[in-house]
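Annotated sample (chain length 114).
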Amino acid sequence: MPNNVETIQIIQELNNLNKRLSNAYKEMYKQAELYSEAERNYRIIQRHKILELKTAGHPVTLIMELAKGDEQVAELRFQRDLAKGCYETAKESIKSMRSSLSAYQSILKLQDEI
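Output written by the structure step:
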């Protein structure tokens, strides 16, 4: 016979995880939006810098390296990479919560079978 207290605790933890998962999805969406904005800003400024360097007559073989080395372009690339890291972290957090949720559901199911 399953321990009623344990079952209640597991159900409470399942409810808690469901709430956390809901918040995590909202956070992941927010991070995806920030990542997309950072990517867009980076690409726009990089394109402007490339055109500026081409117009200035720099060798085509050096333009990409010169553009990437520009302070503003480098800062935007950093912001983009940071936003991507935050987005990936949010995704991994959701995967972890899903695993925990699945484990608790399995335990609950096993307790019902006993």
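Annotation: The chain has a mean pLDDT of 93.
Annotation: Residues 8 and 100 are 16 Å apart (CA to CA).
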